[in-house]
Amino acid sequence: MDTITYIKKALYFAAEKHDGQYRKGTRVPYIVHPVLVALAVKRYTDDEEIFIAALLHDVLEDSSDVSPELLQEEFGYRVARIVAEVSHPREKKYSSWKEKKEMYLDRIKSASLDALIVVGADKMVNMQAYFDAFKKDGGEHVIAKHFNATSAEYFWYYDAVGDILDTMLHDGVLAREYRELLDGYRKTCER
pTM (2 decimals)? Predict the structure, then answer.
C-alpha cells in the first residue's frame, strides 16, 4: 500500500473511532489531537509507521471495539505494538489519578524508541494545549479542568515523563524540546 493510502486509511480509522468525542473541557473534535500528535512526530522522524501509530495512539484507550489484534490486522505488527506501548490498559481500574500516572510511567520506561517518540509528541501537544488555555483563561483551574490534577501533580508527572525521555532518548532533540516547552510553561504558571 502506498504511503498516502496508508495514512488516509489510518486517519479515517481514527476519525471513525473518535467520532463524537471532544477534547476535555472543549468543543474541539477529538480527532484534532491525534492529527496534531502525528504532525509533531514528523518533526523527529520520517518513519511512516510511527506517524500512523501517532494518528492511532488513543484508539485502544478510547474505543471499546478496537483491540491490538484489530490494529495489527489493519496496520501491521509494528504500528499495533507502538499503539499498545503508549496506551493505558483499558481493562485496568485505577484507585487514583496518581496510580494511573505511576503505572504509565513504569510502562514507558521499557517502551521502544518508536513509542517514546509518540509519547513525547503526545505530551508536547497536550502541554501546548494547556499552555494556550492558560494564556487565554489563566489560573490553576486550567490545569484542573484539562488534567484533573493540581499544578504540582501536573508538573510532577510531566517532569517524570521528561526524565524518561532524557534517559531513553539520550538528551536528543525531542527530549530537549520537550524540556524547553515544559520549563517555559512552568515559568508562565509561576507568574
Answer: 0.93
